[in-house]
UniProtKB/TrEMBL annotation:
The keyword Acetylation does not apply. Residues 8-24 have a biased composition (Basic and acidic residues). This is Cytokinin riboside 5'-monophosphate phosphoribohydrolase. It comes from Streptomyces bikiniensis. Pfam families: Lysine_decarbox. It comes from the Bacteria.
Length: 249
C-alpha cells in the first residue's frame, strides 16, 4: 500500500522520532508495512531475525525462572534405563535435594533427567525441565512442573548456570560431558562465583578423573588446584551435603 490515488505526496513525513522531507519521504506508514501480508518471507531466516528469537528465549527463560528457590542442576544420560541402579539413584537424589530445600533443574528429557525430576516431584518440590530442540523428538518428561523448550543450546546452558547454586552430574554421554566441562571452565576462569560440582558414580568417573590427573595436569595443561573444582561420590547423602555446605544451606 502506498499513497492513495489522487492524493499528493507530502513534503514532510514523521516516522516515530525520524523526520523525512522532500525526496526522502517514503510511501505508506510503518503500520501499513507491518500489516501488509504480501512480500518475501525470507526475512524470517536472516541473522537479524535470529537475534530477536535468541533475545526472546533469554527473556522467556529469565521470566519463567527468576522466582525459583535455591536450585541444583542435575545432569545425566537420556539413555539411562528406568530399571537401572543409576535411575534409582537419580530418583533418590532428586528427592533428597528437595528435602534439603532445593529446587531440581534438569534437561527435562528421559533417563537420568527424568529420574531426578521424578524424585523432586514425589517429594513435592519444584521440578524444572529445560528441554532443547533436537532432530529426534524427546519432549519433556511427565515429572516436570515448570518446563521450557529452547532452540539454542547456549541459551539453555545460561539458564542451567544462572539459576543453579551447584551441579550434580550423574553418568552420561557427550551432552553430559559438554555441560560438565562448560561448568568447570566457568568456575576455573571465575566467570561465575564458585559453586559445587559433584560427580556421582566413582566407578563411572574414575577413568576421566585419572586422565585429568595423569595426562592433563601431569602434562602441564591444568593445575593441581583444578582437581579441587569437583567432588566424586557414590553416596546420595554426601552429594547433597556437599552442595548444601558450599551453598551455605
Amino acid at each position: 500500500m502506498g499513497i492513495p490515488e489522487g492524493v499528493a505526496k507530502p513534503e514532510e513525513q514523521r516516522q516515530g522520532p525520524v523526520l523525512r522531507r522532500r525526496d526522502q519521504v517514503q510511501p505508506g506508514t510503518a503500520d501499513q508495512r507491518l500489516l501488509d501480508t504480501e512480500g518475501d518471507s525470507e526475512w524470517v531466516h536472516t541473522d537479524p531475525w535470529r537475534v530477536m528469537r535468541i533475545q526472546s528465549e533469554f527473556v522467556e527463560g529469565f521470566g519463567a525462572l527468576a522466582e525459583l528457590p535455591s536450585a541444583i542442576s542435575v545432569f545425566g544420560s537420556a539413555r539411562t534405563k528406568p530399571d537401572s541402579p543409576e535411575y534409582e539413584a537419580g530418583v533418590r537424589l532428586g528427592r533428597a535435594l528437595v528435602e534439603a530445600g532445593f529446587a531440581v533443574v534438569t534437561g527435562g528429557g528421559p533417563g537420568a533427567m527424568e529420574a531426578a525430576n521424578k524424585g523432586a516431584s514425589e517429594a513435592r518440590g519444584v521440578s524444572v525441565g529445560l528441554g532443547i530442540e533436537l532432530p529426534f523428538e524427546q519432549g519433556l518428561n511427565p515429572y516436570v512442573d515448570i518446563g521450557m523448550n529452547f532452540r539454542y543450546f547456549f541459551v539453555r546452558k545460561t539458564m542451567f548456570v544462572k539459576y543453579a547454586q551447584g551441579f550434580v552430574v550423574l553418568p552420561g554421554g557427550l551432552g553430559t560431558l559438554d555441560e560438565l566441562f562448560e561448568a568447570l571452565t566457568l568456575v576455573q576462569t571465575r566467570k561465575v562465583t564458585r559453586f559445587p560440582i559433584v560427580l556421582f558414580g566413582t566407578e563411572y568417573w574414575k577413568g576421566l578423573v585419572d586422565w585429568l590427573r595423569d595426562s592433563v595436569v601431569a602434562g602441564g595443561k591444568a593445575s593441581e588446584q583444578d582437581l579441587l573444582l569437583f567432588h566424586v561420590t557414590d553416596d546420595v547423602e554426601e552429594a547433597v551435603a556437599l552442595v548444601s555446605k558450599e551453598t551455605g544451606k
